[in-house]
Structures are given as structure tokens and as C-alpha cells.
Write a structure and sequence with these properties.
With 234 residues, this protein is α/β, with parallel strands linked by helices. It is 40% helix and 15% strand. It has eight helices and nine strands. A five-stranded mixed sheet has the order 4-3-7-9-8, with helices on both faces. A two-stranded antiparallel ribbon has the order 1-2. It has a two-stranded antiparallel sheet with strand order 5-6. Bound molecules: iron/sulfur cluster.
């Protein structure tokens, strides 16, 4: 049975997540033709996770495995993300996973489909779906994983390397924690660099957990002693 929670608005008031709007957005996005990326992808990969998620994790776009499965973060980067979340004690059960762009952009190299970064116009075209997801869920915190997510959520002036670990306010008023995409850790040149990049990523996710805990404590009515989750403790 999923935990239910009232979502928190920017002002600190609470409202129920809009499950119907989220489901309708998923159905509509399956037919989306707002940019050319649908032509060479298998399917739209909408976000996945509870509609009453406290935290939304936003990556760049689905990869080869996600394109085939129709679900975000099921490939190697997703596995690394889940491992880092466990290490940071960030409960997967309160997280909704999605991407800034919902179709897989790739180029053929031999028999392989190699990831290609989406253009600014493709990211802008797809913002309608990400904004719908965030409006329906109204999470307490969004984690932007990598440059494309950061650009989509915070605009062109935000920078991953300069701003990582910071929590910035998006133009729509959502709190966004900036960090790298887990695929960048997999691309590190050697084992030592990979370890360092992974540890820094876990530290960012721990910062996200602490932020969630403090926001939950702020909006909780006094005298109420709710159930805690691993993400809300310590
Ligand atoms: S990438 Fe986004 S905007 Fe482009 S067709 Fe797919 S769902 Fe639509």
C-alpha cells in the first residue's frame, strides 16, 4: 500500500497530488509529436513512481534500455542511482523518476544505438511534460541529474559544476538540488576517479535527504508524531 501524503506547495500549504492529471499526461505524451525525436524512438518514456512522491529525480532522456522497456532509469545509470540512493538512505519508495526529454535520441554506430544529447529546442519542446509532472506531484524537492535536467529546470544560466550540491529555486518556485547524472560516474576514466565521483554523488543525495527531512519537519503540525521513513530520519 503506497504511503499517501498531501503535497506541499511553495507557500507551505498542502494539497493532494493530482493523480488524474498525471495519468492523463502520461497518456497524452504517448502521442506527442512536438519535436522530431519520436520518429526514431520506440516509445515515449514518461516518468514512473508514486504520484505523491516527496522527491522527483530528473535525468536527461531515456537510454537504449529505457527506450525498449518504456520505463526510466532501468539501465546501468539507473542501477547506480539506486545504489547511491540506498547508501544515502534516500527511500526509493518516495521518489518519482523521470527525464527532461521523453524520447530516446540516438545515432547508429554499427548495430549499436549511441546516445546523442538533445538540443535546446528539443528540451524546450518537452518541458510541457516535465512541468505537468511537477505540477501534478508537487514534490518537496526536485533533484536535477546533469546538465540537460539543470537547463530544463533552472534555465541556461545554471551550471552543474558551479552549482552542484546547491538547492536553487526554479522559475516556477520549485526547490531544485543540482548534481551530476549517474552516467557521468560510469564514464570516469579510472577506478579512483569513479570512486571519487560516486562518493560526491552520494553526498549530494544525502544533502537532498536532509533537505527533505527539514521541510517535512517544518510543515508537520505540532503534536503529530507521524510514521518516519529512512529518508526522513537522521
Ligand atoms: S521528445 Fe518530448 S517533445 Fe519531443 S516528441 Fe518526444 S515527448 Fe514530444
Amino acid at each position: 500500500m503506497p504511503r499517501r501524503r498531501p503535497a506541499t506547495t511553495v507557500e507551505g500549504a498542502t494539497r493532494a497530488p493530482d493523480r488524474r492529471r498525471l495519468a492523463a499526461g502520461k497518456a497524452e505524451s504517448a502521442e506527442c509529436r512536438r519535436c522530431p525525436l519520436w520518429r526514431h524512438a520506440t516509445q515515449t518514456v514518461f516518468g514512473a513512481g508514486p504520484a505523491d512522491a516527496s522527491i522527483v529525480l530528473v535525468g536527461e532522456q531515456p537510454g537504449d534500455q529505457e527506450d525498449l522497456a518504456g520505463e526510466p532509469f532501468v539501465g546501468p545509470a539507473g542501477q547506480l542511482l539506486r545504489k547511491a540512493m540506498r547508501e544515502a538512505r534516500l527511500d526509493e519508495g518516495i521518489a518519482y523518476r523521470t527525464n527532461a526529454v521523453k524520447h530516446f535520441k540516438w545515432e547508429a554506430r554499427g548495430k549499436r544505438r549511441i546516445h546523442e544529447r538533445p538540443t535546446t529546442s528539443e528540451v524546450l519542446a518537452c518541458q510541457i511534460w516535465l512541468e505537468l509532472e511537477l505540477a501534478a506531484i508537487a514534490p518537496r524537492l526536485v533533484v536535477a541529474l546533469g546538465a540537460t535536467a539543470v537547463r530544463s529546470l533552472l534555465g541556461p544560466s545554471a551550471r552543474v559544476l558551479r552549482d552542484r550540491g546547491k538547492i536553487l529555486s526554479s522559475p516556477t518556485g520549485v526547490d531544485v538540488l543540482v548534481t551530476v547524472h549517474p552516467s557521468s560516474i560510469l564514464r570516469a576514466p579510472d577506478e579512483i576517479a569513479r570512486r571519487e565521483a560516486y562518493d560526491a554523488f552520494v553526498a549530494d543525495l544525502r544533502a537532498a535527504r536532509r533537505r527533505l527531512a527539514s521541510r517535512i519537519a517544518r510543515v508537520r503540525p505540532s503534536g503529530v508524531s507521524p510514521k518516519t521513513t529512512p529518508a526522513e530520519t537522521g
